[in-house]
Amino acid sequence: MHEDYEDDYNEEEIEALVSKYEDTNGKIYFDVEDFENIIDFYIESGELKKALKAIINARNLHPHSIDLEFKKAILFALTNKIEKALDLLSNIEKFSPFNSDLFLTRGAIYSKLNRYNDAIEEYKKALKNDDYQNIDEIYFTIAIEYENMGNYNKAIVYLTKSLEYNKDNEATIYELAFCYEIIGNYEQSINYYNKFISIDPFNEIAWYNIGLVYSEIELSEKAIEAFDYAIAINDKFVDSYYNKANEYFQLDEYAKALNTYKEVLEFDDKEALAYLYIAMCYEKEQEYDLAINEYLKATQLDQYLSDAWFGLSIVYSAKKEKDLTYKYMEKTIALDGLNPDFWYAFANIQKDFEDIEEAIQSYQKAIQIDPLLVEAWLDYSLTLWEADDYYKAIDILNEGLLIESIDEVSILYRLAAYNYTIGNDINGNVFFTRALELDCELYNEVFEFNPDLTENIEINNLILEYKNNK
User: What is the largest CA-CA distance in the chain?
Assistant: First the structure.
């Protein structure tokens, strides 16, 4: 399609042209190019009724202009008169079958209808014509359609083609960085974000996004530096404060995380999440009374914030205050009873308070909601084991192994430990061998469960044999 406003006009000239058109009520002569710019101005400004009136006036003066017909088709599309737009384009095609604007306009309409494959086919037709100079724009548009379909690898192909024709196009570079981030190619994503930043160093969104990529690959220091740049450019960029604080939290630098979360409150002291995270920092520093105070502030601002109620339960559990621990955990479950992590945590708390039957029920609830929650299977079985119900503990883990796609390594090592401990070395060897084949680095899990097994000749022979054959 034509670019908005013809290249011969600057913004001031466009505004002067529109003022002249309005002052004369469109009753003096304007050429086709003038009308195109006037119509584009109204479309860009969202004044679609004025755009339609301008098209009517333009067609009265220039009834045979194909370019004005395109503008009318675009306006039909913008006002959701899709069939009229497509019919008009079909009519234009009879007189101008090789016009790139025809294919681009139709492609844009198909895109609006979420018919992305049809849109791509139209854009590819435009590529075959020599009358459209901005090839990079068409490749870019095709890439966006592939992004719309979630096909980021294909989008990268066309973004790369676009960049071949316009190597410094910021939008293309940015989209390449984004696509590589989505598919997990973080090295390339960082390369393109850096290239974008070299062109536009004061773009806080780019700094923020590269910070997220650094965070994803656990380069926390670089992530913090990137978030700092974003904040320096826009000191009200709240998400950058949050993510900077999160990095400090992950580094166990709770004081720095705490101070950064508090900065968020300078912009909005009614932000429940900020109080939640501040409370978590105090909890990590074992400042339990301060943590309780902040968790309560979070619940006052958002009574449905289950993580805050959960935090209160965890803190009161640490303080060994059973009644309040249970009160707030039950509140948490009432708000989000389908969260397996809450049930798992509740089970561990109940076990700590020696409510074993209740703990078993909570473990069962956790794995019912999320059968892949390996830690719940292990602790459920351990609870039975510690109650001297050895064979039931083994049965539970065998049941867990039947779950499709479960990460079975730790379950296998635990089953090996259980069997060795009760003297069933044959089954122990079977489970231990299977575990070694999956991940030999974790064999110490057997010794962590039962340190006496470090003297077991069978186990040490299997480890030695596996290392020699590896």
Answer: 102
Distance from C-alpha of 244 to C-alpha of 293, rounded to nearest angstrom: 23
Alpha-carbon distance of 201 to 198, in angstroms, equals 6
Nearest to 349 by CA among 373, 368, 335, 332: 332
Distance between CA atoms of residues 227 and 233, nearest Å: 10
pLDDT at 2 over 50: no
pLDDT in tens, 109-124: 889 888 999 999 999 9
Cα(265)–Cα(454) distance, rounded to whole angstroms? 53
* Sign of the dihedral defined by the CA atoms of residues 419, 421, 425, 428, in that order: positive
DSSP class of residue 5 equals: S
Contacts (Cβ under 8 Å, ≥6 apart) of 289: none
8 A C-beta contact, residue 48 and residue 75: yes
Measured over the CA atoms of residue 451, residue 455, residue 459 and residue 460, the dihedral's sign is positive
Answer whether 38's CB lies under 8 Å from 17's CB. Answer: yes
Asked whether the predicted pLDDT for residue 1 surpasses 50, the reply is: no
Find out whether 443 and 436 touch, Cβ atoms under 8 Å: yes
State which amino acid sits at residue 203. Answer: N
Residue 331 has phi, psi (to 5 degrees) of -65, -40
Degrees, nearest 5: CA angle 197-242-313: 155
CA dihedral angle for residue 239, residue 241, residue 247, residue 251, rounded to 10 degrees:
-160
- Whether the Cβ atoms of residue 470 and residue 463 lie closer than 8 Å to each other: no
Cα 465 to Cα 470: distance, rounded to the nearest angstrom: 9
Burial tier of 234 (Cβ tally within 10 Å: 0-12, 13-18, 19+):
middle
pLDDT digits (tens, 9 = 90+) for 370-383: 999 999 999 999 99
In eight-state DSSP terms, residue 50 is H
Contacts of 50 (CB under 8 A, 6+ apart): 42
